[in-house]
UniProtKB/TrEMBL annotation:
InterPro entries: DUF4325 (IPR025474), HATPase_C_sf (IPR036890), HATPase_dom (IPR003594)
Highest taxon of the lineage: Bacteria
UniProt xrefs under Gene3D superfamilies: Histidine kinase-like ATPase, C-terminal domain
All copies of domain DUF4325, residue ranges: 329-392
One Pfam short name: DUF4325
Gene Ontology MF terms in the entry: kinase activity
The protein's name: Histidine kinase-, DNA gyrase B-, and HSP90-like ATPase
Keywords: Kinase, Transferase
Domain Histidine kinase/HSP90-like ATPase residues, every copy: 144-249
Sequence intervals crossing the membrane: none
Amino acid sequence: MEVQKTVLDVKRSQNIIVVNKMNHPANVSNFLKAIFFGKKQGFEKFILDFSNVKSAFPNVCVPLASIITFYKQEGIDLIINKMPEYLTRSYIESPLKVRDHHSELSRSALDIVWQFCNSDDVNLLVDSFIDDVSKNIECQKGVIEGLTWCLNEVMDNVIQHSKIEAGYVMGQIHKTSKHIAFCISDNGQGIYNSLKESVHAPRYPVDAITLSIEEGVTRDTKIGQGNGMWGLHEIVKSNSGRLVITSGPASYMMLGDEISTFNKLPFLSKENPGAIIDFQVDCEKEISVSDALGGYEPVNLRIENLENDQGILEYKLAEKSSGTGTRQSGERIRNEIINIYNDSKQVIEIDFGGIAVISSSFADELIGKLVIKYGFFNFTQIFRLKNMNQIVQAIVHRSVSQRMAESLKTG
Ligand SMILES: Nc1ncnc2c1ncn2[C@@H]1O[C@H](COP(=O)(O)OP(=O)(O)OP(=O)(O)O)[C@@H](O)[C@H]1O
Ligand SMILES: [Mg+2]
């Protein structure tokens, strides 16, 4: 009989720490323990080996990035010795500072750990995340809006309450399971310390977390209203998503209808228990932000900015930086247009003004596949194609006919 060897997710021998898995919050606890016991043995320098990691999720990348930054500031050397190329590009060793990396941010914000310090950083990050999400995956009504709301609230909390200069964030799209995962963390005072002097006076760290998700609970009514964490919890719950809030030794986990709490987890330090907010939403389940937030309807600027005075949404292709030459660009623009329609159910005018020529693959990916998705009749009800010159018309005509013929063949 073959003996199955279980591989430890994090393994330390002397000052060498081998991280084998980065797909579960438990990996973070085990990493913290490895450093804690290593330090206890007198080590001040650790060699980290990530070479066996096959996939890395935000709920491990972000806390690890926070921890590495924290220990470096404390004078503990953490040297990454081996790391697969894809993980190097997530910058867990030294997260990218938003203000120094605008060009990376405009390319794609996903799969990178970012450091943010103020509301300008938060704004840029949220815009970029939402842009990437809407171009990369089809989302049911309200998902993008819900995500935007949650990201703003959770990152704002770091700035308002953590009492530390920076927070960390990473987002990821899981295309196969159609989920979007985000994690935000900080090494600050933690939820318990922030709330303990307030009228709510939680007795234990785990009570502080369960209080923070209640409506109206805020450390100071002069500053906040206690909507952020409550809204996050309601929105994720309404989507049957997943939410894990960890602060100091305490953690609250909601997986669909199941709720569990933990109160003895390892954490950074008494002064810096930090906060980790880890959430996932299902792109295929509608979210009603207004229902989740008890009737309050946030303004959807993404849609409003496109609307003309006749209530038609104008989508100008010439303004899209990805261009009209490649299949990839066609796919990204198609996703964005489908998401705009899912959220608005309004007529969309696709404006070709200023575009001299497009590639046939772009035309197929954008128009051909939209016609197939909605059916010819519905397509003509939802979309208007405007300002196409003769060449563009001919290319679109040919691509759409081929795509329709193909779809008739394959059924
Ligand atoms: N990152 C954090 N660090 C420390 N404490 C936090 C953090 N996030 C939330 N909290 C605590 O949880 C409380 C509730 O947060 P919540 O976002 O619900 O309300 P608020 O930020 O006070 O008000 P609002 O979100 O309506 O502006 C905060 O007042 C604060 O005490
Ligand atoms: Mg808040």
